[in-house]
Amino acid sequence: MSRSMRHQRGAALIVALLVVVVLASLVLSMTRQMRIEALAARNLEASAQARAIAQGAAAAILRWGEDLPADAIAIGGGYVWMLHVDTTDDQEYTWGITEENAKLNLNDATLEMLEDLPGMTTQLASSIIDWRDTDSDPQAEGAENDYYTLLDDPYPVKNAALETIEELLLVRGFTAMELYGEDANRNGILDPNEDDGDASDPPDNEDGKLDLGIFPFVTVYSKATTAEQSDDSTQQIVNVNRASNRAGDDDTQALVDVLKESMDEDRAIEVAQNIVSNRPHRNIIDLYYKSQMTLEEFGAVETRLTTTSTQGNNAQQSGGVININKAPREVLITLPGLEEADADAMISYRAGSENDSQDETSSSLSSVAWVTQVLDREKALSIGGMITAHSDQHSVDLVAVSPGGRAFERYRLVYDTTTAPAKILLWQRLTHLGWPLDRAVLDQVRDGATEKELATSTDRGEF
Predict the structure, then answer these.
(1) pLDDT in tens, 190-205
(2) What is the C-alpha separation between 190 and 213, in angstroms, rounded?
(3) Count of alpha carbons within 13 Å of 365, Cβ hemisphere only?
(4) Top-confidence range, 216-225, 239-248, 306-315, 350-359
(5) Which tens digit of pLDDT belongs to each residue from 228-265?
């Protein structure tokens, strides 16, 4: 065989080998791509399952409310948790529904009330006032259009009510630190990265305590319940300040009829006379004092009486009222005229009352009048139009895991129970904040842990 032919065959072999290598590479690349696409499809399927589990839990909450368990609920082969932030404990997870009425409403709070929030300054509080009011006159330390239109990325001041808490990030001076503090993932737990100084985000002071910012203490969703007159006399709500309860009706008799449902007729007439002869009643606490009812008597009829024609029984203002049975210390001290010692006394009283009775409806906490047992008359009257013993707007932080723990989804649900069915006010995806529970919980799900095992293992102290 000639040298030329041997060279040609050698070249052909090299080309053939190159072709084989290229084809093999293409096959490997295609195989890898198919594997990636298969994994992506499985991940998408798992995410869809987690999302469906969260939506199923939300539907159940809207139907049954607080009758649901809170931790490790098995749904559709996966699990869901209702994560609750306990503002007094940053070490252990807590579960349940949060009362939006236990927070300060940003759209109704006065400048002084806003200033009493954790970490707030006069400038921040003034800027909130200017953002939500309808005029163009800035507060002494606030900001109107003159400030916002001169920013590098300008925008106009809203001059209307805030629609979400996150809207504060548009208000002068607010950053994520003022809003969320060190709690970057908003789980209420002091995670390692939230107590390591500048080693990792978020920035923190490494003091062993979690700064929650103002997020857990404020809302834009709370509101007073409208007092509506019912054709059913057993549901009748009497306005104690009105000359007559309804056209052609005797207001005193209507009042007596309501009172007679929980006391004898002679006592009902006596209390009604006290109420009618001492008009007007500035708020529900003023009514309590002037009626001369006992705390137990007042608690039985409070929800049937109102001091204003357009608001609920505990409201003197158009916006949100604060549930004093659930409000944390940081919210209680924002009420006008109250000091830290007053807030501490209120928390101590309600803790004692809750321990005395497992049924809140039969305890002294069923009526806002319990504040008269803790505060002096002047302070109790000053907050009487801003408080309630009930909640109509609620929020839930839902953490859902797909079967096998392949994916999770997290949502914040805010809903209003004054309508039937309950009305959704916010459905906000929080998955981008990352897994909010201990990593071991997710590992347990992947290892096939049962609902009972998860329910007893989500105490942070066991990891």
Answers:
(1) 999 999 998 999 989 9
(2) 13
(3) 23
(4) 216-225
(5) 433 444 467 888 987 654 544 557 888 999 999 999 99
- Predicted confidence (pLDDT) per residue in 19-57, tens digit: 888 888 877 777 777 777 777 778 889 999 999 999 999
pTM summary value: 0.85
- Residue range 216-229: mean pLDDT, rounded: 76
Burial class (CB in 10 A: 0-12, 13-18, 19+), 376: exposed
Distance CA 328, CA 323 (A): 10
**Which residues make Cβ contacts (< 8 Å) with residue 411, sequence separation at least 6?**
54, 58, 397, 398, 400, 427, 428, 429, 430, 431
List the domains of the chain with CATH numbers. 49-99+392-462 (no CATH), 102-219 (1.10.40.60), 233-322+338-386 (no CATH)
Radius of gyration of the chain (CA): 30
**What average pLDDT does range 347-358 have in this prediction?**
78
Token code pair at residue 328 = 């944390």
Q: Among positive and negative, which fits the CA dihedral 290, 291, 293, 295?
A: negative
Confidence of residue 379 (pLDDT cuts 50, 70, 90): very high
CB 453 within 8 A of CB 447: no
Cβ-contact 380, 337 below 8 angstroms? no
Distances (CA, A) of 35 to 8, 39, 47, 408: 40, 6, 18, 22
Structure tokens at 260: 């007679």
Average pLDDT of span 333-360: 85
User: CB of 378 within 8 A of CB of 364?
Assistant: no
Question: Cα separation of 188 and 168, whole Å?
Answer: 20
The DSSP bridge partners found for residue 99 are 394
